[in-house]
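Final report, Chapter 2: Outcomes

The project's central promise was a pipeline that accepts a single protein chain and returns its three-dimensional structure in a standardized token representation, suitable for archiving and comparison. That pipeline is now operational. To close this chapter, we reproduce one record exactly as it appears in the project archive, with the input sequence first and the structure output second.
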Amino acid sequence: MSRNTRLPVFFRKLENVIVQLPMFGSLKTHNAAAHSFSESSVVSGAVAFWRRSLASAPELGPQPKKIGVKIDVFESGSVGGRLETVKMGDYEYEVGGSIIHPLNLHMKHFVDRLGMSPRKDVASKMAIFNGKELIFEESDWFIVNFLRFLWRYGFNLIRMRMWVESVLDKFMRIYQYQQYGYSFSSVEKLMHAMGETMIAEGFSQVFINDLVEPITRVNYGQSVRINGFVGAVSLAGAESGLWAVDGGNKRVCSGLLYHSKSELIPGKVTSIAVKVRPSKTGAASSFYEVNYAGEQGAAHALYDIVIIAAPLHSGLSDISFSGFSPPIPSHYPGRYHQTVATLVHGLLNVSFLGTVEPPSDFRVSDVLTTDTERSINSVSALDPVHIPPGYKPTTASHKKVWKIFSPEPLTEQQLKNMFLSWDSVSETRWLAYPAYSPPRRKTPPFILHNRLYYLNAVEWAASAMEMSAISARNLALLAHHRWHEQSEKIDQEDLHTRLRGEL
């Protein structure tokens, strides 16, 4: 696995300051036609905790009335996890999580809070490729597109839009719950509180094959044999109003890290152990010893609360746990799906797509593929993460940067089939999101131990930047309420009706 796919592990150690708590989660990779990843969102929530020494645990006195929190962030790679950019020529391009939905309120809040701005919008057109020819090519005219869809698919598109909107309407409840300070102890309870919709029925098979599957392939690299909520998240990524951060989405991660006054510790966490020691009063007190390999060699630090924001699956984090009863597994079942993002600065061979349209007239920027095209999931023309003044997209008769999503690295022959010529190629292999093929797995727990939490558990419901932000906010609230024994703020039923009554 590329080290850029590693997610940071977040630990909070007690100091005499209170800060806004950011926690970076996982984000998934998408192209310009689709929704934004899991792949690094953050959340803020003021939390106060008891102080611990870094080197050893002193005998603890009575709990102080006013306490604060300091955040240590352990990261062995670059900040941002699966948000990443690659420079080609004079510009940088998104190679990781690229697009944010207009209803992603946490991401919108982060960008506003940090004084950032959305990237300038660039017009785009979409087409669908079945491995032999383009079965659909978007027109510049809305009415033409509508009539084409109506002729081929009937009212399936309208029904799909209504279904996705019904799922999103329930999804939006989580923001109200979190605003009022409610949290959930498991992914299942969080999804239940949002009124998760799992089933989408009644769509024609032609519609699913031609349109729904290309969208799930570009967003999750997988077919439609995924759970309904993941499908809805994927389809939401094909709606209008999608945006990105000017200069690159990874700026949100570094910006929030700086804004929170967190300390970034370059290093790889190798193990976490629970330690128990008596205090002066005779009562036992527990803490967590975090062992890591840093720039100066092996080291460790002690914490009251630990939040892991890295996938606990084989080959992804390799964090071991000791001293826990019952034992915590180092690896949970399931696997992460590989998507290879290949950036090519070159001249596209439009005949590869089965079109007779001359390159000078070919203005399609996003080509999605059906399941009959097995070698690639999508081909997209990229615009820089910062749009310079006077920038205009060109036709396929000019060299530009294209991003190809594929399940495996592209061969030299595949590149020759797709491009007439190229100047440079960049390949990034992402283990970007879980394999969602049924049967649907039980999600890993949020709570690994008394004060040890696992942010990435939410990826097994759906992987996206905003899902990671929601998970992080939920864990900040959950840790706070469990620390202060505020059970009335955890796993409450029928919140939607109760809060609606209060309003």
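Archive annotation: The chain has two domains: 3-81+250-335+438-502, 121-239+337-434.
This record, like all others produced under the grant, will remain available to the consortium after the project formally closes.
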